[in-house]
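During the practical work, I selected for study one protein's amino acid sequence and its backbone structure tokens, as given directly below:
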Amino acid sequence: MSDDGTHEAKTTYREAMREALREALGSDDRVFLMGEDVGRYGGCFGVSLGLLEEFGPERVRDTPLSESAFVGAGIGAALAGMRPIVEIMTVNFSLLALDQILNNAATLLHMSGGQLPVPLVIRMTTGAGRQLGAQHSHSLEGWYAHIPGIRVLAPATLEDARHMLAPALADPDPVLIFEHGSLYNVSGELPESTVPVDLDHAAIRRPGTDVTLITYGGSLPKVLAAAGALAAEGISAEVIDLRTLRPLDDSAITASVARTHRAVVVDEAWRTGSLAAEVSARIAEGSFYELDAPVERVCSAEVPMPYARRLEEAALPQTADVVAAAHRAVD
């Protein structure tokens, strides 16, 4: 039992996502899950394991190996009044459905003058750090955050993994949920009942006064570790978890920078044209006179992600890199 009297259960990020899917399927007959290997295999990362046996093949549908086809089918089902959840195995495969996402899902409500909402949820695994090579280690959330007409979510905690799906399904716009592969095995205590996740606002994961560390998704554990290391050195770091990458919560960013007067943006994507670049630009536009130091960015190396573990680790943002960037901002 937690300090506030609510019961907590030990779970993992994967199990929290599965429970969110189970709740969605059980509470609304319009909801169904579709994608490659989501049924009999239980999902490439085991998120949907057991749901086929519980809800049957009409509600948990294995699809052919054609992202363009089954994302298009999901768009059609959403237009027809259903609430589809489409799983794309990893973010690189979403490029095969980019035409459907960009030219159809994101545009139909606007092009129809508000007559054709597309209440579609697309889930996909993102990120590196698991030795899957250059073709399966992308962090392309920033690409999708560039597109008007969609909402982009990056759950980084057990609570967000468990409770982001319901408000995403209630959104009349298409919602893309990026689940970092390194988080699936993360375990912890999850309160049995929590307030719904607010998809419009970032979260302060750790308050601080000396420097703001801004991140999302799979980088959050590293950034929290960096904040702990900085605290041991007498530097108080505030950690902002963006959670929603489109639309960005500008007010949370500017309010934090106004408190700390320094900012470090941590993004696993490549530095050039990254979400970190957008956040840095917004800080410069909205908080320039609050800054006591240039905005620091910590991103992946500008190379295809190496397979070899040591090289992969060297290419990715690490806790030590975040600590070093914070020192450059503070010292």
Observations:
- Residues 7 and 255 are 33 Å apart (CA to CA).
- The chain has a mean pLDDT of 95.
- The radius of gyration is 20 Å.
